[in-house]
């Protein structure tokens, strides 16, 4: 009986410890989820400002010159480039960098709001300053949030956490486009103030929420040392190629076509300014957008735009729940292959709207988010920050180059623009097949 009673007491003790451990782990998992969602608010704001900034600058078109608007629009890239280097200059923990990025977004948005509402003259310096701060936030977000999600995720969920960065980015794009389509100009100051207040509240909320893990930057070695390593060459090449492919394939979707589709809803009496450089550069893209939406007789163009963003979100979630089962390499190969198939239909103008929607879907399923997921996994911890800086710089620089040359190239060879994209993706496809090893997602190491 004594033995029986002793065993019973041990079983009760073990059961109590297991129950306590279960609730502790459950509570910790909840905190990790909240921390991941809070960190992804930065990528949400990056997408929001990425889509909202062009719309905001349009409101100044009657107050400043076209050349001034051009400088203000492009200064965001300079800010983003410098923002990518912030983690190497300030080696704080990742939580601090996420809060710093949010502060940059808040300062930039506040400056633009004040300029639009109060300042009547000499807008250019203030607009440039606002754009510059937003760019700093974008660059710092690109290099720190994917790292934070990688280290925050538990075993077997790193793929899902990595997808959250891209999904939050698409949500930001969607909200900005919705406001751009439906918001009246006289409501802009009020909405801008609400956005600023939201930013400030997020800063206050981040401090306790992000404290679940005090993840420090592992910037033990610098960028130059990383480039000198022979074993790092394949990882660096792969990071640059993935970011280049993502920008080339995604640029057509979000930066050009979707931002110009709504321009076709101009009053019938308006005549385009033939001397306007912007009108000349974007006319070909607007015409192509018309061809896409002319095939949709059952939806208005505004609803079609929002539908495309919703489809991107849906397939982003689908990819998030498929990445651990399919594996990183299979997922990206499948996405690139399907992107090329839909590009063929777009080249020959077959079922344009359906082909375009399919292109958006398969891009969001794999190629769009996968680069941010893989990048922290192909560099060891001591080189991870340097690798992310290289990747972030590649993304910003390629985006800047495409912003400058894409309209000119599209104007000269609109029919072949998708063929060029298809060839670039084909190069990426065979490079991944022969040179990329699948990453398990649990250990970061060179390829």
Structure description:
By secondary structure, the protein is mostly helical. The protein folds into two domains: 33-217, MFS general substrate transporter like domains (Growth Hormone, Chain: A, Up-down Bundle), CATH 1.20.1250; 219-262 and 277-446, MFS general substrate transporter like domains (Growth Hormone, Chain: A). Helix content is 78%, strand content 0%. It contains 16 helices and no strands. Helix 2 packs parallel to helix 5 (124-152) and helix 11 (301-320) runs parallel beside helix 14. The longest helix has 57 residues, at 2-58. 43% of the residues are buried.
Supply database-style keywords:
447 residues; mainly alpha; Growth Hormone, Chain: A; 2 domains; 16 helices; disordered N terminus
Brief digest:
The protein is about 80% helix and about 0% strand. It has about 450 residues and is an all-alpha fold.
Record the SSE blueprint:
Elements: H1 2-58, H2 66-84, H3 86-89, H4 94-117, H5 124-152, H6 158-182, H7 188-209, H8 223-228, H9 233-261, H10 277-293, H11 301-320, H12 323-326, H13 328-347, H14 352-374, H15 381-412, H16 417-435
């Amino acid at each position: 009986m004594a033995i029986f009673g002793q065993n019973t007491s041990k079983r009760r003790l073990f059961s109590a410890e297991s129950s306590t451990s279960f609730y502790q782990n459950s509570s910790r998992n909840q905190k990790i989820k909240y921390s991941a969602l809070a960190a992804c608010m930065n990528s949400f704001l990056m997408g929001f400002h990425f889509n909202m900034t062009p719309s905001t600058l349009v409101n100044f078109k009657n107050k400043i010159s076209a050349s001034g608007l051009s400088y203000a629009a492009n200064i965001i890239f300079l800010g983003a480039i410098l923002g990518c280097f912030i983690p190497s200059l300030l080696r704080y923990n990742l939580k601090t960098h996420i809060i710093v990025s949010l502060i940059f977004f808040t300062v930039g948005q506040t400056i633009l709001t004040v300029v639009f509402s109060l300042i009547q003259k000499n807008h250019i310096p203030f607009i440039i300053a606002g754009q510059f701060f937003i760019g700093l936030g974008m660059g710092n977000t690109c290099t720190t949030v994917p790292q934070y999600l990688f280290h925050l995720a538990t075993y077997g969920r790193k793929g899902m956490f990595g997808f959250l960065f891209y999904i939050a980015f698409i949500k930001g794009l969607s909200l900005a486009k919705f406001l751009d389509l439906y918001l009246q100009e006289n409501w802009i100051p009020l909405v801008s103030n609400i956005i600023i207040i939201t930013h400030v509240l997020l800063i206050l909320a981040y401090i306790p929420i992000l404290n679940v893990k005090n993840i420090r930057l592992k910037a033990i070695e610098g960028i130059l040392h990383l480039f000198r390593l022979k074993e790092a060459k394949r990882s660096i090449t792969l990071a640059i190629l993935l970011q280049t492919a993502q920008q080339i394939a995604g640029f057509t979707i979000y930066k050009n076509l979707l931002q110009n589709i709504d321009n076709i809803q101009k009053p019938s009496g308006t005549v385009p300014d033939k001397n306007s450089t912007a009108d000349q550069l974007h006319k070909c893209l607007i015409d192509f957008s018309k061809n896409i939406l002319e095939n949709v007789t059952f939806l208005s163009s505004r609803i079609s735009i929002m539908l495309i963003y919703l489809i991107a979100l849906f397939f982003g979630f689908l990819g998030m729940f498929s990445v651990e089962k399919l594996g990183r390499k299979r997922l990206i190969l499948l996405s690139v292959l399907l992107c090329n198939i839909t590009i063929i239909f777009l080249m020959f103008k077959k079922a344009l709207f359906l082909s375009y929607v399919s292109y958006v879907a398969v891009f969001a399923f794999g190629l769009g988010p996968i680069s941010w997921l893989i990048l922290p996994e192909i560099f060891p911890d001591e080189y991870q920050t340097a690798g992310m800086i290289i990747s972030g710089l590649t993304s910003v620089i390629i985006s800047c180059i495409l912003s400058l040359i894409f309209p000119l190239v599209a104007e000269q060879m609109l029919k072949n623009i998708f063929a060029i994209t298809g060839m670039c993706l084909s190069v990426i496809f065979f490079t991944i097949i022969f040179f990329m090893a699948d990453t398990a997602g649990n250990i970061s190491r060179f390829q």
